[in-house]
Amino acid sequence: MLILSRKLDESIRIGDGIVVKIVAIQDGQVKLGIDAPRDVRILRSELYEETQKSNKQAASADRSAALEAARRFAQQPAPDVPAAVKPPARNP
Question: Kind of pairing, strands 11-14 and 18-26?
């Protein structure tokens, strides 16, 4: 990890397209301004970690419950679909 000291209004450059500038220092907080290309995603680390955790939980959800819900949904055509286009009833 690179550790740098910067003062108010000083900045650092990351590569050719990203500039991080110290815009305020107040009450134990440092406010950063980040100038980066639009295609560079910038997230606070706690938000990134929460998103990763949520994605992992969703991916490991009970697969059988999801398959059962999909099966039930597939058996019931939308109520506003005319009878002429509804699929024929299945015989059990």
Answer: antiparallel
